[in-house]
Design goal:
membrane; transmembrane helix; elongated; transmembrane; mainly alpha
């Protein structure tokens, strides 16, 4: 359970910090990002990563899965670019991995409870 939470927190925080740094210090663009870029990144990346951080801390695998799926379209688009932002795809993969591990842990603990009830 701790590895799942760690993956979720690392994926969320790492993605947020990486994106914020390279969005405002982009070596390919000579100024601050336009407002439409900030708006699209806020809705399609920042918000899922913040919710993913909450979901990983509070052990909510469904919410983690939703956040990973929500942020995949933008990160898959950026993965096709030659810039440094292509590495943002790692965060949703971490969130998806954390969700899968949490689902397996939950199913395993549910099966143990069922087996103990039968005895």
């Amino acid at each position: 359970m701790n590895i799942a939470r760690l993956l979720g927190v690392l994926g969320s925080l790492g993605g947020l910090l990486f994106c914020i740094y390279f969005l405002f210090n982009n070596p390919y663009v000579g100024g601050p990002p336009p407002e439409d870029v900030l708006a699209s990144f806020s809705l399609s990346y920042f918000l899922p990563m913040i919710i993913g951080l909450y979901a990983s801390r509070s052990f909510k695998p469904i919410l983690l899965l939703i956040c990973a799926i929500w942020s995949f379209p933008l990160t898959l688009y950026l993965a096709a670019t030659p810039g440094v932002l292509k590495w943002l795809v790692i965060s949703p993969v971490f969130l998806m991995s954390a969700a899968i591990i949490m689902f397996r842990k939950r199913k395993h603990s549910h099966n143990e409870v069922s087996l103990n009830d039968e005895k």
